[in-house]
């Protein structure tokens, strides 16, 4: 898909990776509707992006509210026109020992990371299919490829997002509409991992926010199913893990991922 002039709805636009992804899409010539709950931060991000002459609108919404989702899609369509690209970027990482999560945390994590992205896609897909053009990008995670200790719930939601993407992509084959998933490992500088203030294991390394944004652009432009973003190429390891499932668990232990995860949530 050629991105120039395309209208994008991007969730999670107030902080972390969202503003970086938005900047990369603006550079490609897209018009953007940014959304999140924090109006002030959204406005600041939108103002910055507009300096390059881009059309950027900031729409405050809680993606977990059906009413807010409807308003969001209505306002974004009113202001920009038909939505060509949906980026399901908003997500929450409820890290910690699984048994210590509250029932409310379980509901909130499942709703934010899976239900709401599905609902947004469900709302925008009919129009995309009618126009035979559109693209949805879901922000997954390497945690969805290999579940992480003390991030088990988060990992589960990201695995669900990846397999939903795979199924939907097959279903959409030949319609002109497509869906991709971008799976970053540890990301430096901004976002949920950086906010913990711990160093990633040496073997895993970390990627820049710009690398994630480039992957989102590439996923749309080249219509890729899945892009893994990590300095160490992890696909061969994942392939080996499919054949021998103990490999992943062993690697996570030897690479120090389990130790880091424990440290990250103050369990060590
Ligand atoms: N950073 C990483 O290391 C990393 C690695 C792998 C995957 N990812 C994935 O990349 C995506 C972005 O992560 P990030 O690091 O940028 O996270 P982040 O810094 O925590 O930002 C999350 C964004 O989602 C928004 N959001 C959360 N709940 C929302 C809700 N109910 N309604 C509307 N907006 C909501 C937040 O805005 P408000 O709070 O203002 O609503 C914020 O803009 C996530 O899906 C994450 O799982 C990140």
Structure overview:
- This protein is α/β, with parallel strands linked by helices.
- It has one domain (7-233): NAD(P)-binding Rossmann-like Domain (Rossmann fold, 3-Layer(aba) Sandwich).
- The chain is 47% helix and 14% strand.
- It is built from 9 helices and 7 strands, in the order E-H-E-H-E-H-E-H-E-H-E-H-E-H-H-H.
- It has a 7-stranded parallel beta sheet, with helices on both faces.
- Helix 4 links the parallel strand 4 and strand 5 (134-139).
- The longest helix is centred in the middle third of the chain and has 29 residues, at 103-131.
- It is globular, with a radius of gyration of 18 Å.
- The model has no long low-confidence stretch (mean pLDDT 96).
- The site of NADP nicotinamide-adenine-dinucleotide phosphate (NAP) has 28 residues, from helix 1.
Give a quick rundown of the structure.
The chain is of the alpha/beta class and 268 residues long. The protein contains nine helices and seven strands.
Topology:
Elements: E1 7-11, H1 17-27, E2 31-36, H2 39-50, E3 56-60, H3 66-80, E4 85-88, H4 103-131, E5 134-139, H5 152-172, E6 177-184, H6 209-221, E7 226-229, H7 235-243, H8 246-254, H9 257-264
Parallel strand pairs: 1-2, 1-4, 2-3, 4-5, 5-6, 6-7
NADP nicotinamide-adenine-dinucleotide phosphate binds at residues 11-18, 36-38, 41, 62-64, 89-92, 112, 139, 141, 184, 186-187, 191-193.
């Amino acid at each position: 898909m050629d991105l120039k002039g395309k209208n994008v709805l991007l969730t999670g636009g107030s902080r972390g990776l969202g503003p970086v992804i938005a900047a990369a899409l603006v550079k490609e010539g897209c018009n953007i509707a940014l959304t999140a709950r924090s109006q002030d931060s959204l406005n600041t991000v939108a103002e910055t992006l507009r300096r390059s002459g881009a059309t950027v609108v900031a729409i405050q919404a809680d993606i977990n509210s059906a009413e807010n989702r409807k308003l969001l899609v209505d306002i974004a369509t009113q202001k920009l026109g038909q939505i060509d690209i949906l980026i399901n970027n908003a997500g929450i990482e409820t890290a910690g020992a699984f048994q210590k999560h509250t029932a409310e945390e379980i509901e909130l994590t499942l709703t934010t990371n899976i239900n709401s992205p599905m609902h947004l896609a469900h709302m925008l897909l009919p129009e995309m299919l009618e126009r035979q053009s559109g693209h949805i990008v879901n922000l997954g995670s390497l945690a969805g490829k290999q579940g992480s200790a003390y991030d088990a719930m988060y990992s589960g939601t990201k695995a669900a997002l990846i397999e939903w993407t795979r199924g939907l992509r097959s279903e959409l084959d030949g319609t002109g509409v497509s869906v991709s998933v971008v799976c970053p490992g540890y990301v430096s500088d901004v976002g949920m991992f950086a906010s913990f203030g711990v160093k990633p294991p040496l073997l895993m390394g970390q990627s820049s926010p710009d690398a994630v944004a480039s992957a989102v652009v590439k996923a749309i432009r080249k219509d890729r199913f899945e892009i893994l973003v990590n300095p160490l190429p992890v696909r061969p390891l994942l392939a080996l893990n499919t054949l021998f499932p103990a490999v992943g668990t062993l690697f996570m232990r030897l690479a120090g991922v389990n130790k880091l995860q424990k440290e990250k949530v103050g369990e060590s």
